[in-house]
TrEMBL record:
Source species, domain of life: Eukaryota
Keywords carried by this UniProt record: ATP-binding, Kinase, Nucleotide-binding, Transferase
Gene3D superfamilies: Transferase(Phosphotransferase) domain 1
UniProt xrefs under InterPro entries: Kinase-like_dom_sf, Prot_kinase_dom, Ser-Thr/Tyr_kinase_cat_dom, Ser/Thr_Kinases-Pseudokinases, Transposase_Tc1-like
Gene Ontology MF, one: protein serine/threonine kinase activity
Name under which the protein is recorded: Kinase-like protein
Species of the source: Rhizophagus irregularis
Domain Protein kinase: 61-348
Classification of source organism: Eukaryota, Fungi, Fungi incertae sedis, Mucoromycota, Glomeromycotina
Protein's GO biological process: DNA integration; DNA transposition
Pfam families (UniProt xref): HTH_Tnp_Tc3_2 (PF01498), PK_Tyr_Ser-Thr (PF07714)
Length: 498
């Protein structure tokens, strides 16, 4: 007997059911009552006849225990009493579930009034799974996400995902470093590269790639899975905010370049160093503006140790190369790690040793100002704009050997009446004018500054003195052509023509 579904009007072939197969499935899945979440669930619930993401009422969990927190969330473990969906029972017209499992609940900070952007992590996972299922893969080194729930006390939403008893890579290295063979370590890195390849093949950039976002399973035979895509984005998106942990952020990002897949590869290089030494990169340094300047301008990287298989250190250096175009792709990275792992397997009787030395092994305490939780960094980067310029002045002086016309009496300029009219805000404007206009004269700068601040009267001489105090290079006109040519070669752009 033919009839129409009472909900979607599809034609159905059933004398018993009033609704079609799809609508029966949809009606059996609970919703949250929040429009943003429910619209998301409806959009991504049924794909190829399967439930991809669901809302799980909080009373379906028990034994909820706090584990820890990151920059944007708090994480709990919990027992999901019924577990995720296994399949659909046609006869009973309901879903059959896997049964009790342990899961992780990631509570998103201040998410009571959740926005679609905060569901980015689930959206990315959904798109990745679609990609590898369409390619007939049934395995990926990406964490498994089941859906979303809501904390009844805080009203914050929580992402439901797979729980890893071994924890993240950072804790695994701290607890087991000297018990892990190089074969173990290389296998973990190969898995990470594989997961990164899956991300990049979907045109997704992680943006916050570090050892705290990589989870480990197993003891003897270990596997790794990438997680935490909360601030990941499409390579086509335009978002100027910078988040992360300073040692893992690629130098070009600090220099106002956009995130690319190569930025993730740089982070992978830092993870390789961490796997090699058992320590977090720059563990003994303050994670501040000075470190950023050293990374960007002086090319600072963690110290190299020789306790590694053949080819490992060379690959690590390729990953953290200052030029993003010189870094390998995730696919190339995985292939090279396979080769290193194969050679290490061939050395079964004489494997690469992991020796306890002052440079190798976990440390019990990092520098108290070394911050290994993700945070917004844009404000800090803007605040060090002039510090970078000071370093660039040194570069011009040492490498290009220009005549630097520095006024020996520049220290007196802070006491001049005219200079006092230049507040810190106005001085920042001077710096931005130079940065955005590349090479400019003091006269042009005076005009731009007074255009933005009609009340300000300042001489060209005062501007030149102030620029010297801020660290900008001042060159005589006869050097301008050479400076322009050299700066283009070195991709430098800060100079003032006197």
């Amino acid at each position: 007997m033919f009839k129409n579904c009472t909900e979607c009007n599809r034609i159905i072939f059933s004398e018993i059911n009033a609704n079609c197969y799809q609508c029966c499935k949809l009606r059996s899945i609970p919703l949250s009552g929040n429009k943003v979440v429910d619209d998301f669930i409806r959009r991504y619930t049924l794909v190829n006849g399967e439930v991809s993401i669901e809302f799980v009422p909080f009373d379906k969990f028990k034994d909820v225990k706090y584990i820890g927190e990151g920059g944007f969330s708090r994480v709990y473990s919990a027992t999901w009493k019924e577990g995720p969906i296994a399949n659909w029972n046609d006869e009973k017209q309901k879903y059959v579930r896997h049964g009790k499992i342990t899961v992780a609940l990631k509570e998103l900070n201040k998410s009571k009034n959740i926005s679609p952007k905060e569901l980015n992590e689930l959206k990315i996972y959904f798109n990745i799974t679609l990609n590898w299922k369409s390619d007939n893969f049934n395995y990926t080194n990406i964490n498994t996400y089941y859906g979303i729930t809501q904390n009844p006390i805080t009203q914050n939403f929580m992402i439901v995902m797979k729980y890893f008893e071994s924890g993240d890579l950072a804790h695994c290295l701290f607890n087991k470093f000297f018990n892990l063979s190089w074969c173990n370590k290389l296998n973990v890195l190969k898995d990470i590269a594989s997961g990164l390849r899956d991300l990049h093949s979907t045109n997704i950039i992680h943006k916050d790639f570090h050892s705290g976002n990589i989870f480990i399973t197993g003891n003897f035979c270990m596997n790794a899975f990438i997680a935490d895509f909360g601030i990941s984005k499409s390579a086509l998106d335009d978002d100027d905010e910078i988040y992360g942990i300073i040692p893992y952020v690629a130098p070009e990002i600090f220099l106002s370049h956009k995130y690319t897949k190569a930025s993730d590869i740089y982070s992978f290089g830092m993870i390789m160093w961490e796997v090699m030494t058992g320590r977090k990169p720059f563990w003994d340094r303050n994670h501040d503006a000075e470190l950023i300047v050293e990374i960007c301008i002086n090319g600072a990287r963690p110290p190299i140790v020789t306790d590694a298989p053949k080819g490992y250190i060379e690959l690590m250096k390729e990953c953290w190369h200052p030029n993003p175009n010189e870094r390998p792709t995730a696919t190339e990275l995985k292939g090279k790690l396979w080769n290193i792992l194969d050679e290490e397997h061939d050395l079964f009787s004489t494997p690469t040793k992991i020796t306890k030395t002052p440079d190798i092994g976990p440390v019990t305490a990092n520098n108290p100002r070394a911050i290994y939780t993700s945070r917004a960094l844009s404000a800090m980067i803007k605040s060090i704009e002039f510090t970078k310029c000071l370093k660039i002045q040194d570069y011009f002086t040492k490498e290009l050997e220009f005549d630097i016309d520095i006024d020996n009496n520049h220290s007196n300029c802070h006491r001049s009446g005219r200079l006092r009219k230049l507040t810190p805000k106005k001085r920042c404007q001077i710096g931005r004018i130079v940065k955005h206009n590349h090479f400019t004269t003091a006269g042009e700068m005076k005009a731009q500054l007074e255009e933005k601040n009609p009340e300000l009267e300042v001489s060209e001489r005062t501007i030149r003195r102030e620029l010297k105090n801020l660290g900008f290079v001042s060159v005589r006109p006869r050097k301008v052509a050479l400076l322009t040519e050299k700066a283009k070669e070195k991709r430098l752009s800060w100079a003032v023509i006197t």
